[in-house]
Amino acid sequence: MLIPTDEQIRALHERHAPTQEAFDRVFTHCRVVCAIAEQLLDQVPANVNVDLVRAGCLLHDIGVYRLIDDSGRIDHARYVSHGVLGHELLAEEGFPEFLCRFCSHHTGVGVTADDVRTQGLPIPVADYLAQTPEEELVMYADKFHSKTEPPVFRSVEGYSAKVRRLGADKEVRFKGLVERYGEPDLEALSRVFGHRIL
């Protein structure tokens, strides 16, 4: 299994970011998600590939660059497609499917084909659900940080309130992940990265 290094992933971000601001926002978010996942590693099965989790965290949002125009504006109407766009970007770069999936399978607490149909999401109808422990950990860690301007950390309560609007089943799924992996120490991460906690 060939997993890219942090330096190779950073170079990929730099190559695809349309602006320095876009790079700073997306790559910093990916680094934060990686730091969150690293805090949670004590709760994962011993056979989880830590290097794969790290690469997945650093790659998961690379598709956001395809939604940012030259002036730095994000196409929010199509934002949910950033995972599929990232999957396509990595595939075009020659990355194997097991890495591409970190992009397309991290959105929310999982997107089902039924979600795509009933919500009219601008992505191909399919299930986008984490299937491996590594995919699930990246997806879960991502829930605790947002690339908003300014970026913020989301507490368990904050994300629960957000996901509740998408359906009771989504909130139940998130709470199951909290029970399985625990809560990250957002206070410590807030001090390191300087982002407040909601």
The counted number of beta strands is 3
Described by strand count, sense and barrel closure, the largest sheet is: 3 strands, mixed
- Helix and strand succession? HHHHHHHEEHHHE
- Estimate the helix proportion, in percent: 55-70%
Helix/strand/pairing category: mainly alpha
Oligomer: single chain
User: What coarse outline follows from CA principal-axis ratios?
Assistant: globular
How far is it from the N-terminal to the C-terminal residue, by CA? Answer: 38 Å
Top-tier CATH class: Mainly Alpha
CATH fold-level name: Hypothetical protein af1432
What would you say this structure looks like, in words?
The longest helix has 21 residues, at 20-40. The termini are far apart. This protein has a single domain (6-193), classed as Hypothetical protein af1432, CATH 1.10.3210. Helix content is 55%, strand content 3%. Strands 1-2-3 form a 3-stranded mixed sheet, covered by helices on one side. The mean pLDDT is 96. The chain contains 10 helices and 3 strands; from the N terminus they run αααααααββαααβ. It is mainly alpha-helical.
